Amino acid sequence: MASLFISLGLFKGKTLAEELAFVRWYHKHPVNLTLHTIGVPFLLYAIFSLLHCVKLYSTPTFTIHLSHVCSLLYVIGFASLDLLAGFCSISVFYWMHQLLAYADASSHYWLITFSALLIAAATQLTGHFKYEKDSPAFRFFEAVFTTPFFILLNILFVVGWKPKFYKQIKTLTPMWKGIR
To answer: For 56, phi and psi rounded to 5 degrees?
Structure first.
């Protein structure tokens, strides 16, 4: 699947390791990485909250929202790049939809969505401008897919998942110095 993303021009790198090294280059400061680990889930929640407003199919017992379809695409995309990340993302998206259902049942849906967006923006901008001393290398696909995948993988790396792959990413990271 990485080759598909590369051929479509969605990855900046020529391999998955190079792409993740690019993302790591813009998230190399440990505080920025921590802020992204906190903020990216809030960003995804805000995006999925908007997608949740679009009902695709409904019966008296259940409704399929656009957010459900997008969650499935994320899980497939993540699993195609790393099977464990795909399995972990099932849990992440399950709990996100539980939160969406809770918010949907409350009278504070838009307040919760807007708050999540503010938290996401604050953590992202603080991380980049204060700690990286640089603006984000914003590319849409990177922001909504590659960086969340990177954050999930980074959590797995911390607990010892694929140490050789993580070392390869760290070794490739400096190649992106000065490239946007």
So the answer is: -95, -35
Who's near 119: CB < 8 A, 6+ residues apart? 38, 39, 42
* Beta-bridge partners for 58: 63
Tens of pLDDT along 31-61?
A: 999 999 999 999 999 999 999 999 999 999 9
Which run of H or E residues covers position 21?
helix 16-25
Kindly tell me the sign of the dihedral angle through the C-alpha atoms of 1, 57, 64, 151.
Answer: positive
Residue 137 DSSP code: -
pLDDT at 174: 92
Give the distance, in angstroms, between the CA of residue 6 and the centroid of all CA atoms in the same chain: 18
pTM strictly above 0.70: yes
Of 40, 24, 32, 2, nearest to 121 by C-alpha is 40
The Cβ of residue 141 has, within 10 Å, a number of other Cβ atoms equal to: 14
Helix (H) or strand (E) holding 40: helix 30-51
pLDDT, tens digit (0-9, with 9 covering 90-100), for 148-157: 999 999 999 9
Q: Distance from CA of residue 53 to its chain's centroid? A: 20
User: Under 8 Å CB-to-CB from 23, ≥6 apart: which residues?
Assistant: 142, 146, 147, 150
Residue 174 DSSP label: G
Q: Please tell me the distance from the alpha carbon of residue 170 to that of residue 47, in angstroms, as a whole number.
A: 30
Q: What is the spatial distance between Cα 94 and Cα 107, in angstroms, rounded to a whole number?
A: 22
